[in-house]
Amino acid sequence: MIISRRVDSARSAEVRNRVSCHTSSRLCANLGARRRRGQCLRREDGVTAYNRGGGVGDLLGDGRTPRTRLRELLAAPRPLVAPGAYDALSARLVERAGFDAVYMTGFGTTASLIGRPDVGLLGGAEMADNARRIAAAVDVPVIADADTGYGNAVNVVRTVQLYEQAGVAGIQLEDQVMPKRCGHMSGKALIGADEMVGKVRAAVAARRDPDLVLVARTDAVAVTGVDDALARARAYAEAGADLLFVEAPTSEADVERVAEELSGVAPLVFNWAEGGRTPPLPLERMAELGFALVIYPIGTLLAATAGMRALLATLRRDGVPSLDGLPTFGEFTDLIGLPEVQELERRFSG
After folding, report:
1. Alpha carbon distances (Å) from 330 to 35, 300, 323, 325, 337
2. Using one digit for the tens of pLDDT, what is the confidence trace for 34-66?
3. Residues with Cβ < 8 Å from 128, sequence gap 6 or more?
4. Domains of the chain by range and CATH?
5. How far apart, in whole angstroms, are the C-alpha atoms of residue 275 and residue 281?
6. Cα 333 vs. chain centroid, distance in angstroms?
7. What's CA 153's distance to the chain center, in Å?
């Protein structure tokens, strides 16, 4: 049943509470025990700022890993906002802006690494390498796009291993055929639901850290319709996915239907794809509908493109590169950690 476009406050609270309770129980199982075991562990003083990031076993200074922190954030009453990053610098900017998580965009990774579209041109090792660089650059949890898993269920096992070793807190897998396409492009095709169930089960079995969050995405809305997308999402949750991601619903009514019919099945992801097929709903609306995670995958990439284009235009026209809001050299070197490097030099150089 499609819920009303004007959800009353009582109904909104009911949806939020139901999703929050389900998220807490599903994502936070055994969390307390893991936190207690980690409370005696701390980073080595003096190199924390330089050795940043959420590598395997890395701790945030209070006994939590980025993975346990991600599960806590996903269990909160309001959606977790994860802007997109495509390299270490953009990830650090996301963190510096005060966001609690980073989403490694496959679209942005492909565009930045090889200057090509998101149509399955990069392999799993290339994507995992980028995930490693991003996770090493920040302390907040990183959720990383892993496309189709780069093959069948056996390939998914290796992909999960590579991403887990890279230090990400979450990994996203989708049910397109390989090579895939960006979820907001035309021409997508799907693997069978049973095959994707096998991939999700393989991912669950492959992860060594049970706190690694598995996101299962279905692209069925654009191919076989909303009914099939909902059926697939339920099957992927039953197979062990921690979060469900129904990609590219094209109307607010369809977004509402997804939220209503999957409420209580598993926590949900909303893709606020800049310029994409899904209506750009306000974050407050996402909270009312009970979404646990809202990603903004390519806004940073588009902003960087706009800034570089404008600066290059002034250089070509005036012979001087100019752009409003351009950081100073000192501001930029602060961003990329020069003060921390200088402190290490001061402490440890002879």
Report:
1. 39, 22, 17, 14, 11
2. 333 333 223 334 455 555 554 545 666 677 899
3. 159, 162, 163, 165, 166
4. 9-306 (3.20.20.60)
5. 12
6. 27
7. 21
Contact 345, 46 (CB under 8 A): no
Give mean pLDDT, residues 192-221. Answer: 98
Tokens 């598993």, located at residue? 266
The token duo for 115 is 């200057």
Token output for 38? 């980690």
β-bridge pairing 102-104 and 293-296: unpaired
Task: Answer whether residue 237 shows pLDDT above 50.
Answer: yes
The full DSSP string for 66-120 is: HHHHHHHHHTSSSPEEEEEESSHHHHHHHHHTT-S-EEE-HHHHHHHHHS--SSS
- Res. 342 pLDDT band, cuts 50 70 90: very high
C-alpha 262/C-alpha 230 separation (Å) is: 7
For the stretch 245-261, pLDDT in tens is 999 999 999 999 999 99
pTM equals: 0.85
Is the link from the previous residue into 179 a cis peptide, with omega within 30 of 0? yes
